[in-house]
Automatic annotation (TrEMBL):
It comes from the Eukaryota. The keyword Plastid does not apply. Gene3D superfamilies: 2.40.50.430. Keywords: DNA replication. GO terms for cellular component: delta DNA polymerase complex. Residues 26-157 form the DNA polymerase delta subunit OB-fold domain. One of its GO terms (biological process) is DNA strand elongation involved in DNA replication. The keyword DNA-binding does not apply. This is DNA_pol_D_N domain-containing protein. Belongs to the DNA polymerase delta/II small subunit family. InterPro entries: DNA_pol_D_N, DNA_pol_delta/II_ssu.
Length: 201
């Protein structure tokens, strides 16, 4: 019986020319692509709450103390993030002046901060946004004020609205196979199998 499967993965394979500079690439293209895909959904989230107050601008176009809505990628700047140079310095016993052995037990530091990057500029974030709420690479909309040339004070964070869902399959469009693993519904692996069977069928 033929499955009708077609392998379309060739477009993801690197050519010889692409492999030459593969290690020189940065994440910028990924962030820009994600930004372009999510921008409309972030604008939608902002308009639902801010309404007419929403004025979308790029960071470079902001006037000082102007309230605006900006969209971009968030990045955590971790001062104790492991790195090759730090490892070499530790091996050679070349320690920074502010070295504190007690602090080295954790990667978290009060020197850590958040940055925000749109298509053309990067600023440091302050205000109503926490290091614990975000991860590097998150694409979001921020409503707030530019308080310094390199600092944006956040009043509200806006995440993309949910992605439009595809319609559920029907008898005419075919079925769906779901692979489930590692679910602990009852705390007992034997009971989980029976419980899951009832839930599905």
């Amino acid at each position: 019986m033929e499955s009708g499967y077609t392998n379309r993965s060739k477009k993801f394979l690197l050519t010889l020319d692409e492999k030459k500079d593969a290690f020189e690439r940065q994440y910028n293209q990924v962030y820009v692509s994600r930004l372009n895909l999510l921008k409309a959904r972030i604008m939608d989230a902002g308009q639902k709450e801010l309404g007419k107050k929403l004025v979308y601008k790029q960071l470079e176009d902001l006037d000082m103390h102007e309230k605006a809505f900006v969209i971009g990628s968030i990045e955590k700047r971790i001062s104790k993030r492991p790195g090759v140079l730090k490892e070499i310095a530790e091996e050679e016993n070349v320690l920074p002046e502010d070295y504190d052995p007690d602090e080295m037990m954790s990667l978290v530091s009060n020197k850590d901060f958040l940055e925000f990057e749109d298509e053309k500029q990067i600023v440091k974030l302050e205000g109503k946004i926490s290091m614990d709420e975000v991860a590097t690479g998150c694409t979001a909309g921020l409503y707030g004020t530019q308080v310094k040339s390199d600092v944006f004070e956040v009043e509200k964070v806006f995440w993309p609205t949910p992605c439009p869902q595809r319609p559920w399959p029907s008898n005419t469009t075919g079925g769906v196979i779901a692979f489930l693993s590692g679910l602990e519904l009852t705390g007992d692996a034997v009971n989980d199998v029976g419980y899951l069977s009832l839930a599905i069928f």
